[in-house]
Design brief:
The structure is a homodimer. By secondary structure, chain A is α/β, with parallel strands linked by helices. The first copy, chain A, contains 15 helices and 16 strands. Chain A is globular and about 60 Å long.
Amino acid sequence: MFKFELQAQSGQARAGVLYTPHGAIPTPVFAPVGTQATVKAMQPRELYELGATLILANTYHLYLRPSDGLIARLGGLHRFMAWERPILTDSGGFQVFSLDALRRIDDDGVTFRSHLDGSIHRFTPEKSIQIQHNLGADIIMCFDDCPKPHNRDEVRAACDRTHAWAVRCLEEHTRSGDPARQALFGIVQGGIFPDLRAESVRFLTDLDFVGYAIGGLAVGESKAEMLATLDCTVPLLPADRPRYLMGVGSPEDLVNGVARGVDIFDCVLPTRMARHGAALTRHGRLNMRNLEHAEDSAPIEASCTCYTCAHFSRAYLRHLVKSNELLGHQLLTLHNLHLLLTLMREMRAAILAGTFEIYAANFLATYRTTNKEAPAPTSL
Amino acid sequence: MFKFELQAQSGQARAGVLYTPHGAIPTPVFAPVGTQATVKAMQPRELYELGATLILANTYHLYLRPSDGLIARLGGLHRFMAWERPILTDSGGFQVFSLDALRRIDDDGVTFRSHLDGSIHRFTPEKSIQIQHNLGADIIMCFDDCPKPHNRDEVRAACDRTHAWAVRCLEEHTRSGDPARQALFGIVQGGIFPDLRAESVRFLTDLDFVGYAIGGLAVGESKAEMLATLDCTVPLLPADRPRYLMGVGSPEDLVNGVARGVDIFDCVLPTRMARHGAALTRHGRLNMRNLEHAEDSAPIEASCTCYTCAHFSRAYLRHLVKSNELLGHQLLTLHNLHLLLTLMREMRAAILAGTFEIYAANFLATYRTTNKEAPAPTSL
């Protein structure tokens, strides 16, 4: 069964535990993304070692390949990918809406072409929930309409659709699902408009979901707009339910999100950056291809305790990246995830100690934001 | 210091220990290939876990990128790649001779173009040894001329050149190297011609190398020719020196090589096959892309104790391979190396128990050779 236990608050920041059928998730928590039923370049045992307690998988991708039916016949997603801890699946909505020219939306659902073979498919709220039942994640999401955040008319229409679909998702989950096995979260929309966000919160909280996601952010708005939207939305959410900011995961965004009362995050940033040859650090981002690292015998971060930093120099990592060696992806992924998961644990400890505001201020004071640091959308 | 200790013999098969500055290597041994200072997709800790005691790195590749000078300045290859156990480097000869149109050979050395940027370089026996000194492997190889095995005139000319170069390599190693830190092996050539092989053995053993490699095999000759050449060459080599069959590593070739008295092997086969989506098993090779695996909940091999087989189904591995996920490369590489390293340990135990001939006969009786099973050349 699901239970969310709030343990401490420091300012708006919260520490808690979300209990699920596959174990307890201490919050605040960052979920590495395992789009195709694998967190890219990481073995489950490595993720356990890093202390990952929750991962995300993508409904759109797994529906297309290898198919949710196959995964169900093989015992569900946990068993399929040999991951014994909690999993969260998205609804497929964001992915399908990201297909641009390849999709057509109506009030009943979305028709789209597969990016793999061009075949035509249709998602409805009911279908998304049924697929997520087949996958068997602990936390599943409502199928929502995720618009660009700045056009008020579009955002309002998307809110109306999202709300109608939330009702249908809840009905489908109640009808054919097992709420003791899978918890359904609602998704708040409303773009950058405080009144629409408030209206969306009111509508969804009336439906009484196990948790609430803040959707429609990290999709092209400015940092200031994202934080302002959190400021006006999060306080309206019920304190006794977990809050999930979708698609956010740069170090500074995690700190700013926790400071505003968010409990759950996911993002492809640490894994994707690694494959692009970038290392995340407490002082900003390093491009490991840069010549300055060529003969540098120091690790990525001297203070880091990850396997990569304990054994390998920047010079070696640069060599691997320049040589397109798979080990480069692996070692950088491991380091980047280690940093974010450590950051989450440090924030949780600070909240429990009542020192979060000092911790956050110190972290942000030494963290160097680059232009590239804008939140990375979860793309295909 | 180096010492080779022969512990037992079972038929022609030998069990021994080769002591090196970075530890003891129980033989017979298979060395995974780490061309660019990384065994592709494998962390050193994973190779330790698999029981790898020796790896090979390629002089040609590391000379070009990141350069042997850089590796020397960073403390040598062991430190650069964080590998604490013994390393063997080839001479670069085979790689340079494989460049086809890009190289010109004369009696003094080889001029070639880099496959990376087209720049022109020159290897001589002295240069090869100097590069290998910079890399700092425990076992280093003479620079040799490696011809196609069937043309007697070409093979004879290559033998003459190989012998002259062996003298120069030994002189350079004596002059500028540290024989207590690095052991130089000679390489026997002679193609498929028994008299040329015998002549090559005589010439090289007169020079008194620490160990002897059998070169010029696994380069296009038939299986029968390879085994016949081993049959006529290995017995001529001194019993108190380790014997190394270069570039060989399919399961049946390892068994047949050990049966003929070979102590050391290396091959890209297990790592390369993994990246092509193939799993090695005790009963032959599996193409993990095949539809037959789509819903198969069984592991690659039910009897296998590797991490991959303990946790993941064929269906999941097929999904990873079909989806081009890095984890597919990693898990198949891990399994394939586990099989070959386990096979070597089993053969060693059988030799020590005096039961090698039964073991080998049983293994070969159940191992299904496919057409693809011809030895894979160590290419670029």
